[in-house]
Write a structure and sequence with these properties.
The chain is α/β, with parallel strands linked by helices and about 180 residues long. The protein is built from six helices and five strands; from the N terminus they run βαβαβαβαβαα. It folds into two domains: about 100 residues, Rossmann fold; about 45 residues. A five-stranded mixed sheet has the order 1-2-3-4-5, sandwiched between helices.
């Protein structure tokens, strides 16, 4: 695997370019800019009852839509959710401890999907605040860039802590303004 060097996939995982017809759930792990195309093609191949969980973060550039809004357009009526967390793929693949949130507007579906996807080292928390989870997932990457700038500029840990603290408060306000919860 070019992006996960030294990682061996389990025997029960197969890499394929074919879309499944059925599954317990499908994880859509693409950049947000390709989610529309991939989900449109997936919609026609996949049984309509199979939930699709997007792992995309950010806004679609052409429309400024969040990932679940894109799926609502390309996969109408399908159960969907969003998985987001501050994780590095290589650490998850190595089995190092990690946590994330899986949100669906239907909390029961989120709980079912987290039970399906939890492992001994990867802990998912169920939420019904899909808007808040998507916004937090997108905004945390912007905060990380800003935090890196404070380090690169030699501004010190106080500046970095102030930036992160202020940003978390602003993300909460943004989440509330767009239908999410500040606590997410």
């Amino acid at each position: 695997l070019p992006r996960l060097p030294d990682i061996t996939l389990p025997d029960n995982v197969t890499i394929t370019g074919d879309f499944p017809r059925s599954a317990d759930a499908v994880l859509l792990v693409t950049p947000v800019q390709t989610a529309r195309d991939v989900s449109t093609r997936l919609q026609t191949a996949l049984d309509p009852a199979v939930p699709v969980v997007t792992c995309c973060k950010g806004l679609e550039q052409a429309t400024s839509l969040l990932p679940l809004d894109v799926l609502a357009e390309t996969m109408p009526g399908r159960p969907t959710g969003v998985l987001s967390g501050p994780n590095f793929a290589i650490e998850v693949a190595k089995g190092l401890p990690a946590a994330a949130t899986l949100a669906c507007t239907d909390l029961a579906l989120a709980q079912k999907l987290t039970a399906l996807l939890n492992t001994s080292s990867f802990r998912l928390y169920a939420s019904d605040d899909a808007a808040g989870v998507q916004l937090a997932g997108a905004a945390k990457n912007v905060i990380a860039i800003g935090a890196g700038i404070t380090i690169g500029a030699g501004l010190g840990e106080n500046a970095r802590a102030a930036l992160i603290t202020r940003a978390v408060a602003e993300i909460g306000r943004l989440a509330e303004a767009t239908g999410g919860r500040a606590s997410t």
